[in-house]
Amino acid sequence: MSASRRVSPSERFRARVDELFNSGRELGEILEEVARLGVALLFQLALEAQVTEFLGREPHARSERDHEGLRNGYAPITVKTTSGPITLERPKLRGNREPFASRLLGIGVTKTKALQSLVIAGFVRGLSTRDVEATLEEALGEQAALSKSTVSRICGVLVSRFELWQRRDLSDYELDYLFADASFFKYHPAAKGEPILCTWGITTEGRKVFIHLSAGAAESFDSWQAHLSDLRERGLRPPLLGITDGNPGLVGAFEQVYSESLRQRCAVHVARKVIAKVSQLDQDAVKKDYWAILDGIEAPPGEAATSIARQRADLFAEKWGQPYRRG
Asked: Cα separation of 41 and 33, whole Å?
């Protein structure tokens, strides 16, 4: 059997997660795709672990009980979820006295939103057996309950992949722009959302890179200072420009850790605040005029481009300042 054929489906899922973390795609896309892949990986690991329990041995291991069942490859199977269909590889067996029936399959539409949040949250804080058991039961029902050994194996595999990525050296990155923001995820189905701190950037060659994820008790100065200090300790040099929202903890931490860098407020966050202050009737026009300030400036970065943007901003203020006074 060739080496490629001995790679399990769950290992291929893990490789795809690794590729995503290093793909340089937009943060929102990465988190969404990692969540979907994480759910698929969780299902695949559970399927493979159930077969291991059923046969009483690990893949490629020999046993005196081989006549009671042998692994015989995989067959694709689609599972419907509330986040769309996911394709798994169902283990095939031959020679087994009793038919193998996974408790994860044939259960209809599953509630995977909770599982997606669990995967992202678990990456940065660490999955516990209790977390996985509770969320799987909520999403799949009691009939899909897994053994503690299976759940423990799932936790270990997911977390180990993320920890390798989280500790990688950052000295090879030279960034023009470093973006910092937080997304909120639930660690338990009934819990409030807690922040996951995210940083990503654009290199001097124009390549997008996903830098770091970490858990934060709050979007506080201390949480952001620890996150950004970790980047620096792993070799990330000061970027030309940092882009943040208006959170004072983030602003203060960035200006302390990367004091050599310039910093500006994120244009997307400013746009949201501006649009929220106008009537629904005018929102589309205000949004279009706002982005026209920054789009299509035919000048090199620097004073010339800044001057053009300021002139456009003055025209924007003149047009919309009369019906909507500052307040």
From this structure: 12
